Structure prediction request, 334 residues.
Amino acid sequence: MRAVRIDEFGGPEVLVPVEVPDPVPAPGEVLVRIVAAGVNRADALLRAGVYHAAGRPPLIPGIEAAGVVEAVGDGVTGFAPGQRVMALNGAKSPGYYAELAAVPATQLVALPDGLDLTRAATLPIAWLSAWYCLRDLARVGKDDTVVVKAAASGVGSAAVQIAAETGARVIALAGSAEKAAWAGEFGAQVTVDTSAHPDDAEVEEVLRLTDGRGADVVLDTVGGAAFARSLRQVGHGGRVVSLANVALAPSTVDTRDFYPKNVSILGFQLTNLQIHGYDPRPDLRELADRVAAGVYRVPVETVVPLTEARAAHERLEQRDNRGKIVLAAGAEEA
Prediction:
């Protein structure tokens, strides 16, 4: 089969198309023909060698995908050849930048009618992360004001919709006027072009928009200096949820920015939840059903052939994309 492999850590140029043996499903596994694979920040971190679950090269990246069941291993029930599924990799390797993958049945969810494979490939990481952070960690409610940073990203565009559906007031922050306006199309009541409000001016703008009291919830997908600003933007008793990988954007904060306000700081990594027994399948099923029903819109900016994974990572690192970048791993209609 064709796959994209990393033989050494580095920039996008280390993503190399190769031919490797077809995987064989072990007991408890399902052989999936991958049609689409989501491209995530975690993939770029793995490629660079700074992801906590990376392992050592050679590696096939990719932590979310959708495709069609080819065969099932011994002991597998509930899946059959021809069934459309989405796959969550967790910390398992190899990943989904490939035409085939042997996936534990516990990491698969069958797709409802009305959900295509391209959009389904974006749900197991970006959408599930936004869902869990807002609903389970921050417990966003209709009386909350929620700030979503990088609101035009895959996670951000999901978070805007999930928060808005609860009835919360959503303030979307994005890095250009165009991105901010685009985030507004997904339910944000207020949008802010952060390029026009750099550093402390961004904090002042959020405080102005919240009548000086600060936000109830800040979802920070950026990290670094943005995380320090998040602590100043949240109000008394508020919650800051950080999805940013500190290896990519470490942050230095002053405890005076949050300690006097009784702020809750919540860190999130999906793979850590799985290690501690979190079963993502019920949440993924609910997300898939809502997307299929039209409750949520899943924006896919571009679909890139598997063999051009390098170009997909270059696009990701430009930070100009709106919504998700997806690799097309198979010829079947997605």
Notes: The chain has a mean pLDDT of 89.
